[in-house]
Every structure is written in C-alpha cells, then in structure tokens.
Amino acid sequence: MGSVHRGSGQDAIESCKPAPYGGACPACSRAKCKCFYRTDGSGCERCHRLGKTCEPSNTVRKRKARDSSPPSRRLSPPSRGLLEEKLDDLVTLLRSQASTGREAQDYKSSPSSLATSPESRKPNPLNAVLNPDVVLDTVETFIDLLRPPESQPGYQDRDSDMGPSSPIFNDVEVHQVPDLEAEDRLNIFRRAFIPTFPFVHLPPAIHSAELRRQKPFLWLVIMSLTDRVVDRQFAMEDTIWKIISHRIVTQHHADLDSLLAIICFSNWSHYYKQDTPFMNMLTQLASTVAFELDLNKESHSASQQGPRYGRTSSRSSTQTDTRTLEERRAYVALVKLTSTTWEAYRKFRPLGWSPYLGKCLRILAEMKETKLDASLAAQVNCQIFINPILYPSSEETGEESKGQPITRSLFAASIRNIQEIKRGLLPELLSSCPLRLYFNIAELKLRDRFLNTTREARDPQDQLQRIQDLEATMECVERCLGVIHDMPLEDWVGVTVDKFSEFMHCLIALFKLTTLNEPMWDIEEVKKRADVLQLMDKYCETMARVAVETRMVDAELPRKGLFFKGPSLLRAVRSLMAAEMANKGSSLAVEKAPAAEHAMEIMPDVPFDVDSQNNFLINLDNEPWLSDLFIDSWALDLDATATFI
C-alpha cells in the first residue's frame, strides 16, 4: 500500500486540489513550491509527504481578470508585500503633508513681501485640493490623485461656500475697503463700466465680500478703477503690477480670475498710462493665460492628461469638461480685446474666427444669464468681418500702405452686414449708448476707409456720387455726436480705451470734413452743422465736470488722474486741428473758436496743463491710432495730406 501511495506521486498530486491564488500554505510559499491540498482536508500534499504540520494560509488574494493582452512580468509575493508597505507609507506621508498645508494657510503675505517671502516662491496650497482621493493600483503600480471638480478654473462660482482658495487673496489684503464703500464701488462698476464692455457678469446677488473671496484679483482691479481718490488708485495699481509680475509671470499662476482681471486692467489701461502704453503687453499676457487654460478649445481631451505612471490628474482619464458660460464669455471678451489693441497700436494681429468662437457667440447670443452677452457677441461678430476690410492681411505694421481700395460693392455689403447684426438685437440693447456708438463708429470706419481709397472722380456722375458719400459720412458723424451728447455724465468714468478711440475717430472725421477743399462740397455748411473746435472745447469742459460731479481727488504731481489730465490732452489735439485749419486758410474758423493758448478765456474753471500737452505731442508716435487718423486724407488730390504731425 505504501509503495502505491509513494511510488505514484504524480497520481497523488492529480487527485489533490491546487491551492487558490494567494492561498498557498506558509511552508510551500517559503519554498516557492506549488501547493496542492489533499481531498480529505488534512493539509497539503507536500507537507503530508514530508511529515510536517501544514498550517493554513493567512490571506486570500483576488486574482486579476485575464485579458487578451500579453502577460506582463509578475512580481513575486514577497515583492508585492513590500510594494504594499511602501504604498501605505506614501499615502500616510501625503495625508500628513496635507494637514501641514492646512496649518500653513494661516500665514498671511502682503504685496510688499511678495518677492522675499517663501510664499512668493511657492503658491499657497488650495483648500479644494488638500485632501484628494488616492487610488492605488498595485497591479500596474501607479498612484492616481482624483481631485474634486472645484479645483478647476472658475470653480468658485459653482460653490459659493468655498473659502478663499487663490494665493492672490492674501496679496490684496493690504487694501482694506469698508464694506459700504466697496458695495458702492461695485455698483458703479456694474452701472458704468460693464455695459461699455460686458466681459463679465456680476449679478446683484454677488456682494463685494463674496467677489473678493471668489475672484480677489478682479476685485482689486475693480476697486482701483472706481476709487475716487487718485492716490489710492495708483497705490492699488502698484499691487496689481506686483501680482502680475510675481504670481502670473514668475509663478505661472493661471486661472479665470487672473484672466478676467488682466482683461479688465487692459481695457481701462488709460486710467494708468503714463508715457509708454502697456496695453500690448497686457493683451498678449491675457492671451497666454487663456491658452494656458485651454479656453480656446471646447473641452479638455483625455489625451492631454499626461503619462499614466506617476501622474497627478485632476479628473479621471475618461472625463471631459464642457466650457462654462463664464469661460466662453471670457474668451469672446479676449477676442474683442485683441481687436481693440490691434486697432490702437498695430503690434500683433487680433484673434480671428474659429468654429469654437462661432459656437461661443451663438451661446452668448441666447442671453442665458444677461442681455449684455448679446451685446458682446454682436460687437465681436461685427469686428470679425470688418477687421480684414479695415486692416488687410498684407498690412503687417499698420504704416502708410492700406492695401487695395475697397470696391463699392464690398463697401455696400459691409454696411448691410452691420444692419443685419443690429436687426438681431433687442430694441432695449440697441437704445443703449455704448452699443449705439459702436455700430455708428463701425459704419464711420468703413466710410473713412472707403473715402481714403477712392479718390478719383472722372466725370460729373462720379463727383455727384462722391458728394453723396461725403454727406452720408457727415450724417454718420452727427449720429455719433448725438450718442456722445446723450451719455450721462456719471457714465463717462466707464469709457474704455476702445470707446475713447471711437470718440476721437468721430471728432477727427468731422475735422476732415471741415477741411476738405473739393468742388461741390460746402465746408461752411459743415461748420454750421457741427463746429469741431467748439465741440473740442465743450468736451474739455465735460471731462473736467466729470471729475467735479463724481468728487474725484487728484493725485500729487507729477502723475495726474485721467479726468484731470484729459482736458489738456484734448486741447493738444485741438491745437493740432487749429494749426492745420490755419495752414489751409480757414482763418474764420480759428477766429470763431480760439486756439489752445486762449482756451482759459473760454473755460476759466478748467486748469490748463502745458506739460501734459507737450508730453502728448512728444509721445504721439506711441499712439498710431491717433496719428493715422490725422495722416489719412480724403482729398482727391493725393498730395493734399496733413503735414503737421
């Protein structure tokens, strides 16, 4: 019997049951041998054969489901145990670091210590990402940190109960604004600034404290723009520049708050501009932040999640994000900003049309949150098709060359396109001053370009057609002047760089019509309808009244606030006009409206700043939008070009 049992070892093994995966007895596991349990339940066949006591297995592991892929190299059981211990230690370390990070959040930094504090070298940990869910895959040996969706850009609006999560929140604490005053400034921004450029939606339910917690950088820019004390306004400007240089440029901090703040700061940059304009630099920085956030795309693709092994992901590999309405609005506002910057300074081409931009414009036109979304979409729609006409692609620098002349059919089609866009808007929107001024100026720009490139009148019929074109341009100028006249005085504080250039474009177009010496064109009739020099005097007085009515307090020299130096800048433009009209023999107009040196006799309450006027004339090369308007001539004679700049 014994010979049968021990002589037929293979038969004995075949009659036994193999141990399940991870269920081998300790003796077989240490010897790295296969373990076969006997059918009578007395232990394994090897221990029975060696006369040892068979101890039961301590753990039972689950077998991984087989797939069709080639078998990978398997780790031995002791190696797997060691790996699990290391992963447990790593999880413990991560959680201990997270608790330490929460304690470190009590450290408060100020803008003056941004460059020297340890916090300036490393961004603050965010509340929303301190305790991620840790997923351990012991088979493929990787760690996946699944962070909550609130850690994505713009999440603050989705959960108003979240605490301050941006490192910039601590940077703005140096500027303490009383609650009532902050609410008043925020309401001023809603009433006078946002309708002019609706780049963000701030419903009345959002109070200043909540906005400061959700978007501290945007809050700081808003508080600076609406501060009536210019010295405090410039102090906040210093903090804004420190945040831009340290947080965004040095630390590569990019979120929706940063993008909206830069867009806001750039669109009202004339509040802070000194000698050299910085709008170009800020616009390019805003574009960089937007592309860093992938706001020029519909969603994040799974292929952009990074490598699988050792990755730190913010979402699962199959999850994608659809853009929020706030993100789409921010990208459309960026497109408008790049167009405005290109028109003003001609340094780089604006963002053009794309299928994604078209979808954003359609969604904004539905006005799901605010009617002003349709206003922004209409302006960008209009800008997209008139930009190639006003500034052809062959024009890279914005210098004298203006490309091919505009044909009358293209000009007429462009005017019809503007009318079509206007018909798609609500009457309530079309009656607003900012949108009325925009569409009238868009038409005026097309007429300016058309008159500048069609200077031939070969027969009486052509001459009659040209007079009709000039009359239509004059009517367009009168409509623009009517809108400017209808603007409430308190809304002048919200005028953007774009609106200020539109305002100047209207006045310079009137100046061209006043000095255009052509057969059949009556310049005396133009002066009766609208005298450009008298209007310049009127607007100088209006800008001075804005500072008085809104109780602004100017800064100490040498810097001056926008509405304190604005009248002097307008007088500088007026002096250029008066000098050119004198050169062309319009002595009557000069006598009727005195030149700049006699302006104090007309407006004794408005201070005359000679230094501001001289600085404006010296730095006119930095303002191609203004010098181009003066240089371009509508005269039939190609030699009749303004020469005073």
UniProtKB/TrEMBL annotation:
PANTHER family: FINGER DOMAIN PROTEIN, PUTATIVE-RELATED, MISCELLANEOUS ZN(II)2CYS6 TRANSCRIPTION FACTOR (EUROFUNG)-RELATED. The keyword Nucleus applies. Its main location: nucleus. GO terms for cellular component: nucleus. GO terms for molecular function: DNA-binding transcription factor activity, RNA polymerase II-specific; transcription cis-regulatory region binding; zinc ion binding. It is found in: Nucleus. Residues 68-80, 109-118, 311-322 have a biased composition (Low complexity). Residues 58-84, 97-129, 299-324 are annotated as: Disordered. Keywords: DNA-binding, Nucleus, Transcription, Transcription regulation. Transmembrane segments: none annotated. InterPro entries: prtT, Zn2-C6_fun-type_DNA-bd_sf. This is Zn(2)-C6 fungal-type domain-containing protein.
